[in-house]
Each structure stands twice: as C-alpha cells, then as structure tokens.
Design a protein that fits this description.
The complex is a heterodimer. Chain A is mainly alpha-helical. Chain A has 3 helices and 2 strands, in the order H-H-E-E-H. Chain A starts with a helix and ends with a helix. By secondary structure, chain B is of the alpha+beta class. Classes of the chains: A mainly alpha, B alpha+beta. Chain A: InterPro entries: PNPase/RNase_PH_dom_sf, Ribosomal_Su5_D2-typ_SF.
Amino acid sequence: MGLPNVSEDLSSEVEVDAFKRIFPLRYFERHLAESIRADGRPLGKARETSIFLGAVAFANGSALVKIGSTVSHYSCVFFVKCRCEFRFLIFLWDGFNDFLIDLCSDYVDCY
Amino acid sequence: MLIFVISAIDFHMPPICSPIVRPGRPAEASPMVSKQLSNTISSSRMTDLKELSLVSGKAAWMAYLDIYCLDADGALFDAALLSAIAALSHLQIPSIAMNDDGKIVLVSDEDGQKRAQEPVNKEKRKLTLRSIPFSLTCILHKNYILADPTAEEESIMETHVTVVLDTSGQLISLYKPGGPVLAYTSAIQDCAALTRQRVKELNNFLDKANSAMEV
C-alpha cells in the first residue's frame, strides 16, 4: 500500500526539482502568475525580521539582525499535475540528440 | 574649531556566508555595500557629529562599524543597514578624563585615583539618533514588483531597486543598478510605498529591541 505512493511522491518531487533547475525563470514566472513567490510569500511582503542588541560583549555597540531564514518552503501545488518525464540518457552519449528532442517534445506536451 | 569625524564602515563577507564567496579573495558585493552604506549614513545625518567631539580642536571619537555577513540570502544592503542602525542605537560612549599631560584616559569606576582627574565626559551616554534611515530592495520583473528578494530570486531576475527612506518619510537614497526593466514613475512610487510600510515595521522592531535592552 505505502510503497507506490512513496515512489510516486518522490518521482513528482524529482520532477519539480528538475523543472526548477532546467527552467528557473519559467519556474518563478509560474509562481508570479499566481501572485506568490517560490517560498510562499505574497509579492510585496518582506521576510521575517528580528533584531538582537548586544551580540558582541566587548564592543561599545553591537547588533545581530536576521532577515529571513535558510530554510525555504517551496509550494509544489502547481507542478504535481505536470507529467514531464525527463529521460536521463547521459551515459549513451551517441543518443544525446535524441535526448534533446525528447526533452523538447516533453516540454511541448506539458503545456 | 571642532573635529568632525565620519565613521569608517566596512562590510565583510566571510566564506561561511555563501557558497559563492571564496576564501582569500573579497566578494564582489562587499565594496558595493560598504560604499552604499557610507553614502546612506552620511547623507541621512542621523547623528550629530558634534556629539563625537571631546575637546575642541584636540580630541574626538571615531566610530568604526564592522559588519559581518553570516548568511547571504539576498537583500544584503537592507540587512547591513538595519544592523548598522541597531548597533548605533545600542552604542554607549564610555566616560573619559584628561590627564595633566593632556592625554585622554579612560575613567573606570573601580579606580578611585583616576576620579581626581578632570572628567571630560562624565557618564556613559548614548548617541542621539534623529531621523533613522531604513531601506527595502525590490525586484522589477515584467509587470511585477517583488519586495525583499531572496538570493535565488536575485540571481534569476536582474533588475533591483533599493529605496531608502527615513522615519519622517523623506527619501534618502534611490539605487537602481541597470537591468532590462525600465524604472517608470509608477514602479518607483510603488517601491516607495512598499518601503514606507517597511519603515514602520522596522521602526517598531527597533523600538522593541531598545526597550528590551533597557530592562
């Protein structure tokens, strides 16, 4: 029961990551068309901000400022329905042109 | 004649802050942010430089601002300016006495002997900040304006606009380093409106931080 769902979720996550890496500008524009960012923020909102004074003891004045965080939350809602299949045939170098044709045809089929 | 001393501001990016920064060679963004910070702080006139004067014509304080970027995730100038302002608001100028020889000596409360010296600055005191500048960086992309971009968004979309306003709503600085999207009047006005909201938020944060320190 659990195994097919797990493999399907993993494959869709791999698809989203591949799409983001190969077409980064289009990935962000898909989010912009829905008026959100890749980390889930609205367009005009700044990140979480915190100020901590007195961070360095031997300085007369010091501060630690944190805007945002290193953990990013990506929304995958818009890409689950996309059935791109990136066939990675890197070892068969003679078939590289076929790989490119497959990539373009898959890209056309998705939209 | 008073001595007016302008702060020396350095912005450091150690290699721990980003995979792009290499050890040994300074990062590209570091001198840009340093220069932008110096221009913003000097043109905002948020501190009266006479407060840094000790003895007229002889001695004055010189403030060194060293800002270290620990994690570079976009909008570096905003974080650097906010940390500089927070540090200056937390700054306490130590008490100072002058010797008979004319040398400046730090006054420590423990030592009773040095209290016999004539104190120039009797107490620890804070700088008076008049109008505090805050900044917001936006990305212009086609018809969209994205406030406070991450490093990923900055690397993909190319047009940035940084607007610096102070607490009274006056425009201190506007910085747009090229890019394919033109800066129309409506876009600049929208960026300024977003920055005005951000100035209110950050001013509240700074007041909370200072009141928390006083307790």
